[in-house]
Design goal:
The chain is mostly beta strands and about 800 residues long. Among the domains are: about 5-165, no CATH class; about 205-450, no CATH class. The chain contains 13 helices and 53 strands. The strands form 10 sheets. The protein has a 20-stranded antiparallel beta sheet, with helices on both faces. The protein is elongated and about 110 Å long. It starts with a helix and ends with a strand.
Amino acid sequence: MSVENALVHSIPTDSKIIVALSDMDDLQLLLNDNPLMEQLQSLSRMEELKKASAFLDNYSLKEESFIALSIEGKNQVAITLVTEGFKNPIDSASIKKRIEYNQIEILEKSAKGGSYYSANKDGVHIASSSLLVVESLIRRNIAEYVFDPGFQKLYERTHDDLSFYVRATDQNWLYYFLLGRNKSELHNYAQWFQLSLKKDPTALHFEGLISYKDSIKQKHALYNNLEAQENQLDRIAPANSRSLSAFTYGDVSQLTNNLTTYYNRMPTVSPQLMDILSNAQEVSQIQLEQGSALAFTLLPYETLFMDLDSLSSAKSTYRDQSIYSLTKPITTNSLSPLLTEGSFSQVALLDDFLVIAADRESIEMIVSNYENGTTLAAQLWWKDAKKNISNSSSLINITSVPSLKSPIIEVSKEDLKVLNAIDMSTTKAIISQYVHEDGYAFYRMEIPYATTAADQPLVAQIGTFKSEKNIIAGPHLFPNHLNNTQDVAFQSEDFQLTLISENGTPYWSKSLDSKIVGDIHAVDVYKNGRKQLLFSTEKKVYLLDRDGENVDQFPYDAKKTITQPLSVFDYDNDKDYRFVVTTGDEITLLNNRGNTVSGFNYKKSGKITSSPQHFKRGNKDYIAFTTARNQLQLLSRTGQVRTRIKDKIEARSPLYFNNNLIQFINSQNKLLQVNPTTGKVTTAKTSLDPESHIYMTERSQLIQTKNTIQFNGNKADLPYGTYLPAEITKVGSQEFVSVVDNGENKVYIIDSKGSILPFLPVYGNGTAEIAGGKERYLTTRDGNDVIIYKW
């Protein structure tokens, strides 16, 4: 028997992963400096692997060898080295024990991970973390033993200086293994993977073969000889899909033949589904954040091969696209396991894609991302990754990092922390691609982990909520301290306030007395990071915790109708708030507990016509607002006049504080600037017209005239449209402008350089609000639908 065969037949029984190598240094170089491996190395299984394989550091291999991973008992890792007869001198100081077994001496030696065992037999050197493995290999008569015919055949065809072989008899075994489980193999996937690894500064690449048999029920046999077509799923799949899988074919008869061989009988495919398959070349499974869909990439057509109107019981429109409710749903049970079994009644035709889903919401999610251009195909990291994979394949799978962070099995808290810590800016997805032919599939895997597009913004719809009543206030974003996301609050015409999650799941609804006046504020009255919702209606001031319960003495009952949006002052940035309630010509201040603040004595001076604002210049506070007597009032904390403004003021815009000046537009469309210390009023040289709008913060200035926005001097020209007033919002450490084109139902976000963010505009109307930190959110409306985007 040749040395090569002797080594192959000395591999431990039931080995799951085998590394064939001729130089240990090559393996170390490949595994080092791998960002994904570095992030996963704290998994309990990885710690176990490091301990079990520590003895390999004692070897400097320069000849043909195998390193095998097998499972001992129920779930214990064993690492075994099989190489040519080892002639290096034995370091007697490392020997802990000599064991005689079947006339072969086994040496127990010390290693970083504990002990390991080694022996020489028939010209083969064996070393293992398991004594049981060494003993079983000593007992083995390799002259009469065949390790695994499938492995040996694949090895002879593919091995080079460094190859990895993974037993593929169960689709999920490796996944379970890495998360600390030893899954029983179902023998229904394939035989063996062979992988050669390469890495560069942008990704980790795997290439190789996978072997399978069509004589037994192995899933990969279903793709055999399908004649791979160009993959198109990236054009229809939302960029934030959790996972994607697609297969292509040149002739549907080959597909049905493979199913017949697999089941040993002809599949019973409905005429409707067969009609779709006959007119398609690719079938994609799209797993969304919530829900899923199937997309069929259709062959070129002039008239659609099926009459969706006659096949449907209802038809509706979403984003100008028709969605059909089929009278008889399409079932995919006959195509299992090619496709997940299911019943699909919702259908939409998007150019050359026929999309079906079990629920309308999934169709809408596909439509919205397709219309917004936020598909996988638009992502820069994906464009980079595509350079290293084929345009065509019989099967492609794409698994997102968020999907990896949500394991399908129960794992330890420690392992879950490791998964949650995976950096999504350096690791985007795991992409695997196959071309099947005659019992083998050429295989590529790509793990992009550091691309030039790491910081590329993405705007993707993540949730919707359909209100049964007209929305009259909001939606407003509200921070969720429990999971560091943003929830959304809105009020419907029946005065119900509803709070929903980022994906549109309702938490609660609460009846209010009347319409909300102004915004909903997020405050922290307990100073513990747990925010409350603060707002006023026409009659009351509410402070609700995130469960919708009243806080302390709230709601506060106003003696008169509240006429201006509620203001929130935090004089010293210490969260000792003052909630400012305006009722006609009066002002009332409330503290965190809902008590009236004494010592604020404002002398009435006509009906208050703007929401009071707090500005600070130097060490002085200014409470500013306008009145019906064309006065600008500047008060101290106690309500006394701090600075008298002699000029008559007719403001048509809110008051802003910018560049140490109070600024606003007057009725003559002039930008006025007031020095709060001296009371001097000056007119800025800024050119405005009756349609001009301003918005300012202490450090930023926005001027909007029709479709032109100047943000800190940087000009952004938007398409002609019907724009609502733009707003500046600080998100994290940056300020952004959000603006709605109500005529075209589009929402834009502009950065401080005056540039529209990539993948914008998105669909929305009526209002738009942005917020967040590391993860940023946008909420808007589509009539009575609340839409939530992440960007």
